[in-house]
Design goal:
The protein is α+β, with helices and mostly antiparallel strands. It contains nine helices and four strands, in the order βαββαβααααααα. The chain has two domains: 63 residues, Alpha-Beta Plaits (2-Layer Sandwich), CATH 3.30.70.100; 96 residues, Arc Repressor Mutant, subunit A (Orthogonal Bundle). Strand 2 and strand 3 form a beta hairpin. The chain is elongated.
């Protein structure tokens, strides 16, 4: 019978924002013979404490790949917020049914005011603006894929209307979504003429 210890150790990793990063982390854990339970964006769960030597070697190895093992509580909270936003906006097929502030608070177990104050203090940008910037990046991506129209994109990203999406898009990029789409088509035509 397999006995699984009930102690979970969490390691938090900065800049871990893609599936490729997860693969790098898994490989480093395997190389150091650290058995993991979960490797997710920004967090690794293991059932055993690792030695200071393993911790330091993991830190050094991750730095070589542009990843950073976090120890500071505030840095950990910021990184977790960023990972939730990235996952929510870029990797989820459906956005949460609750608003972003409630979703982030529930995921982290802290009040939104506390989280947004720490985020603004450390990052120098409000959490709301950070979310908007990611949503606009996602809109740009969806426009380039050309599979959805603006109405569908605004619905997918929970904008109240196409006008709301367009206003935020123009405020962030300086362009309307329609003009941005035309730029893509112009570039494709120019590439064909090479």
């Amino acid at each position: 019978m397999l006995v699984i210890p009930d102690v979970k150790v969490r390691l938090f990793i900065k800049f871990m924002v893609s599936l490729r990063c997860k693969l790098v982390v898994k490989e480093e854990l395997k190389n150091l013979n650290i058995k993991y339970v979960v490797v997710d964006l920004g967090v690794v769960e293991i059932f055993e404490h690792i030695s200071p030597e393993q911790h330091e070697q993991l830190r050094v190895n991750l730095l070589k790949s542009g990843l950073e093992l976090l120890d500071d509580k505030r840095s950990i909270i910021i990184e977790r917020i960023q990972n939730i936003v990235v996952e929510m906006v870029h990797y989820s097929d459906e956005l949460p049914m609750t608003n972003y502030s409630t979703h982030i608070s529930e995921k982290l177990g802290y009040g939104y005011t506390y989280l947004s104050n720490i985020f603004a203090e450390v990052r120098g940008i409000t959490l709301q603006n950070y979310i908007i910037m990611h949503k606009i990046e996602r809109v740009k991506e969806l426009i380039l894929y050309d599979e959805l129209n603006l109405t569908e994109i605004s619905y997918l990203l929970q904008y109240s209307s196409v006008a709301h999406l367009s206003n935020q898009f123009k405020k962030i990029t300086g362009l309307t979504p329609s003009f941005y789409k035309q730029l893509k088509k112009k570039r494709e035509v120019n590439l064909e003429n090479l």
